[in-house]
Amino acid sequence: MARLHIDAVSKTYGTEFAVREVSLDIADGEFLVLLGPSGCGKSTLLRMIAGLEQPSAGRIRLDGTDITDSAPQSRNLAMVFQSYALYPHLTVAENIGFPLRARRQPRARIAARVTEVARTLELSALLGRRPAALSGGQRQRVALARAMVRDPGAFLMDEPLSNLDAKLRSATRAELVALHRRLGATFLYVTHDQVEAMTMATRIALLDAGRVQQVGTPEELYDRPRTAFVAGFLGAPPMNLFPAVVSSRDGGLRVLSEGVDLALDITADSGEDTAVLAGIRPEHLRPDRTAGAVRGLVRMVENLGSEELVHLDCGSNTLCARLPRPAGLRVGDTAAFGVDPDHLHLFHPESGLRLTWREQSTPLRRIS
Questions:
Q1: Which residues contact 14 (CB under 8 A, 6 or more apart)?
Q2: What is the mean predicted confidence (pLDDT) over 144-151?
């Protein structure tokens, strides 16, 4: 087991930043997921931790020891690659035992460890096969077994499930979570798939353009996104984001936009309107045929089986509602929805930072 500390790490290629001043504390035994779109720097950060890339600035510590300049083989870390990187001419047993043979461990110890790890990952019946005779899921488990065999302090995983089909990915996610609980080891996992992050992580670090946007539990990032990027990245479909103003009307604050008139249930003295970027998750729009805060024309209805996605045109704004099926709405209908003010998110229209407000406090206060 291991604790990782990443202190203001950056990586540049020429004048371009791939990773910019990233700082993270990864606790012993944690399952931290580095999440973000392609090209955001998450794999580069993982490779710097593994020692496969050298940081341009910053330090990396493992259990308090500075490993920034250490060779990859001297770090007590195991890397699981997206491509699995198995040796095609070796059997499963030989692939699993390779790290121990490279360290000239006794044959008896290698055989015992291979048997132990193979039993843990249910590979015992496959030890005599070669990678070409294995399914994608079996190859992924062999790659994990090879990482486990030398009992590393932490596992570094670079999109290890991306080559699997959807059904196998779901099953393997559950296997990885169970394995993490069983081993109690530190897992640092890279993915662009929000479902993997939300279902597997104890914490998520969401990156964009080389910077960390937010670090927290899956629930924290989903329920209280720190930036508009976080709000729009998490969720399927993502959060509805649209320009609005917060205005003081009849002694209270209201959020106003095309097709949106939502009372915040907060008293406030009259003041100047404040431009904001408003956000509502699709599942938080509930049908309200009388005094709906959101009104629009149904443009499309998507049937997801147990649910329907209702797409609304609210002037120039397009919003999506996620409803149990049947929602009873058709294309061309005029629909109205209510929103609990607690489920409304407000962001600065330029910086994208989350905004908050307090009783008798205007304008809105930015959260840094």
A1: none
A2: 85
Q: How would you classify the pairing of strands 240-249 and 274-280? A: antiparallel
Same domain, 218 and 281: no
For the residues 269-281, what does the mean pLDDT come to?
84
Q: What is the pLDDT of residue 368?
A: 40
CA distance 93 to 80: 17
Number of domains in the chain: 2
> What domain range includes position 61?
4-233
Q: What is the pLDDT of residues 179-218, one digit of tens each?
A: 888 888 899 999 999 999 999 999 999 999 999 999 999 9
- What three-state secondary structure class fits 16? strand
Nearest Cα to 248, choosing from 269, 228, 279?
269
Q: Is the pLDDT of residue 130 over 60?
A: yes
Q: Are 260 and 318 in contact (CB under 8 A)?
A: no
For the question of whether the overall pTM of this predicted structure is more than 0.70, the answer is yes
Same structural domain, 296 and 202? no
Asked if residue 284 and residue 206 are part of one domain, the reply reads no
DSSP letter string over 195-227? HHHHHH-SEEEEEETTEEEEEE-HHHHHHS-SB
Closest CA to 203 of 236, 228, 170, 180: 180
pLDDT tens, 16-72? Answer: 999 999 999 999 999 999 999 999 999 999 999 999 999 999 999 999 999 999 999
Q: Tokens 């500390």 appear where?
A: 5
Q: Which long-range contacts (CB under 8 A, 24 or more apart) does 209-218 make?
A: 209/17, 209/20, 209/40, 209/41, 210/10, 210/11, 210/17, 210/18, 210/19, 210/20, 210/22, 210/40, 210/41, 211/20, 211/21, 211/22, 212/22, 212/23, 212/24, 215/24
Same domain, 46 and 141: yes
- Which of 180, 214, 233 finishes a domain? 233
Whether 127 and 100 share a structural domain: yes
Measure the CA–CA gap between 253 and 78, rounded to whole angstroms.
54
Q: Which amino acid is at 244?
A: A
- The two structure tokens encoding residue 263: 């009372």
Residue 252 sits in a domain whose CATH number is 2.40.50.140
Residues 192 and 252 in one domain: no
The C-alpha atoms of residue 2 and residue 141 are separated, in whole angstroms, by 22
| Bridge partners (DSSP) listed for residue 182 | none
The residue among 233, 250, 265 that closes a domain is 233
